[in-house]
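Hi support team,

I submitted a single chain yesterday and got back a structure, but I'm not sure I'm reading the token output correctly. Could someone confirm the output below corresponds to the sequence I sent? I've pasted both exactly as they appear in my results page.

Thanks,
R.
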Amino acid sequence: MIIDWQDGRRSEYPSIWLRDNCPEDRDPRNGQRLVDIADIPAHPRISAAVPDGTRVEVRWTGESRASLFELTWLATHVPGAPGTRIDSPRLWPDGAKLDAHRDFAWGAPPAKMQAFDDAYRAFAVELREPRYALRTRLDEGVLVVFDDRRTLHGRTAYASARHLRHLQGCYLTRDSVVSALGVLARASSAGAAS
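Hi R., thanks for writing in. Yes, this is the structure output for that exact sequence:
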């Protein structure tokens, strides 16, 4: 889909990028994606793009639903365009809102997005393979520690009216742990020497 803006700019939105960023597939409160890349069509095709005031309705070939994109959102989320990348830190709660810049190959030129998506999809399909998964039930009071750099982790869905689920995350940087261990080791050896 190509949009010619009133200020003379022209923006290209590949169908794979639009399909991956459908507002209907995101939580309206925090922007988190609600579908897995492996669950959307591998090569989506736009059957129609219909302007609708401040939005554009995108209809998909082979799908019964359409997607509504706000024009203001599209104007600030141009795939592959310089200046659309967000590198500056965002303060909470703004930092909690996810966006297309971080979920997809936002820096890739539109011509390379399909290749990226194909590789990303293949990886997502492999992640679903049971042979690569370790599943265990955690009982109350159980602590699990793992290195985010070495272990891909997740959790399955949980629903219970009788049992509340409380999952507490604690994140430590490698440098802070190594530094704290060094301080403790020096304090311990200094205490043993006196």
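A quick pointer for reading it: Confidence is low (pLDDT under 50) at residues 84-98. Let us know if anything else looks off.

Best,
Support desk
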